[in-house]
Amino acid sequence: MSAAVAVVVVFFLLLGPLACGGALTRADLFSSESSTEDAEAIEAVRRRIARTRPATGVDIAVGVAGNGDRIVAVLLDDGHKWTYAHPLDARPAIAGQVIVGSGGGEIFCLDARTGNKLWVRPTGGLPLVGAGDDGRYTVVTLGRSGTARGSTLLAVDRFGDVNRQIETDESVGVPAVVGGLAFIPWGRKYISVFDIVAGNEPARIVFGERVSHAWTQGGSIYFGDAGVYRFDEHIQHAPNVMDATRERASHLMLPPRELPGAPVLLPPAEERPKLVATVRDRVRTYVRPGSSKPGAAPDEGVLTVASSRYYATYFRIIMGFDALRGRLAWVHTHASDIIGAAAAEGGFLTCDEQGQVTFLGARQGSTLGARELGEPVKSCVVQIDRLALPAERDRSAPSLASDLAEALRISDPELAAGKRPLIREIASLDDDIATKALIDASVDPTLDPFVVADVRAALASRRKGASYMLSALRAHYDFLKDAVKPPPVGPIARAFAAMNDASAAPLLTAHLLDPATPENDVQEAALALTTLARPSEAPALAQFFSLNYASAATPPIQSAVLSAAQILVEQGGKDGRAIVERAIASQMTAPDLRARLRALR
């Protein structure tokens, strides 16, 4: 890590009024040469913070509307809405009780509850990365223009005066501010505690994993990126989180599991929040830290996951997971893409591109309420501090399989690859509806071929839902009736053969004679019929054999012909054996096929 902090004279000359106020008095704030931590110093900061709990943040959703020139907001407790017109070059940041935005060569700060402007400062066009606020000071991280590496930090008071300005070549993340102390993430593993008034660094915390965000919530301070740390009496043990011989830092890491789109919990500092929501915003994971001692001080008790749920979004699909084992608990299919969200006590709040904020219950994903921003938005940010959702009523239906089936029915090519983990999830369910969902997915024209292969394999392994499989076999390709794809005959045939259920035999035989049935499905159906066929299927199988033995040019059809011959020999009686003998004697039968037919005698 290069370039210790410096107050750059050229920058002052460029920005003029921005630079007024105090200057940084310590030159190694972001220097790796001073990369050690002092447990006593960290504890002194913790005791100081204990006397000044973080201010309660406003529960709010904020969106970018219009042509990126207007902020729209709705308070989540009472539904009050406000707007603020201003050119924007980055997504606004919610920091406790304020909203910070940038654009038009300046940054501005708004009262989160009213939308009233508190102050504005010139920036020279530097884009906003993130902000923290404690009710007295707002600390803002600004990125460099274009792809240039480095950051600018400003500490601004409620009068709009810049008390501190810090320049660094490091990528600095999103800060938090409590009691005049700024907790500043940088270098992917450091939190520098910066005293805004004194202009020094009273403590530094070094982490064993990447950290890019600091924030306050529910009266506690947290740091995180892939996981979450709580700032409490155990924080000095963060570097030893993997060392079982020492007391560990209070740390949360979500259970490892496959999720659609490989979402992240918090984006790294290098990924500056865009004005318009990206795929990264549509595919995210969310968690709210909690405590094992409800009602106690925020940093007491074991750090847990609130409501024992964490959440993931994948465009229009929202999933709730068991926080202990990572098992999927419910799926909610939304009307439009989710571009912002936050976890709350008792549930999950989503903000979609149409400007609707939806309240979902933690346990079952039931819809508990909604707020409206009033218009479509380009991006959205949600902050929840103290808001608790109402209790969720038990629902008798639908089941998890039904939830998954609804998600799989979304006809959108953009979602095709992300459905793959959902298919594996539904294949593991012991539920008849799961079988129907797999059948429906198998004929979905928007699914990627690799995903369809997963669906077919999952369907072949099913031992439940025979009635749905029989219903599927009764359908045939019929363009005029909008049946544009034949049913998954092969996997269903394998499933019935494994169950030794002969009820499918007539329907499978009918698909052998259907020219729309794919060759591989013909092969699998014929093989299954060697187990399932009865004498009543012999006439139709004789017809199939007679039509194909002389023209079987591909391996799947040759295999199907041999399976049909086996059934005719075993169950077709004298007439069936005679049909096979005529094929053996015929000069039209290929020599290799003739030899294999002789082996059936």
TL;DR?
By secondary structure, the chain is an alpha+beta fold. It has 15 helices and 30 strands. The protein folds into three domains: 9-383, Methylamine Dehydrogenase, Chain H, CATH 2.130.10; 397-464, no CATH class; 481-601.
**CATH third-tier fold name of the largest domain:** Methylamine Dehydrogenase, Chain H
Shape: elongated
Distance between the termini: 80 Å
Please identify the structural class as seen in this structure: alpha+beta
Placed side by side, the strands forming the largest sheet appear as 3-2-1-30
Low-pLDDT windows of residues: 1-22, 240-246
Gyration radius, in Å:
32 Å
Q: How many alpha or pi helices? A: 15
Specify the CATH class of the largest domain: Mainly Beta
InterPro entries: Quinoprotein_ADH-like_sf, WD40/YVTN_repeat-like_dom_sf
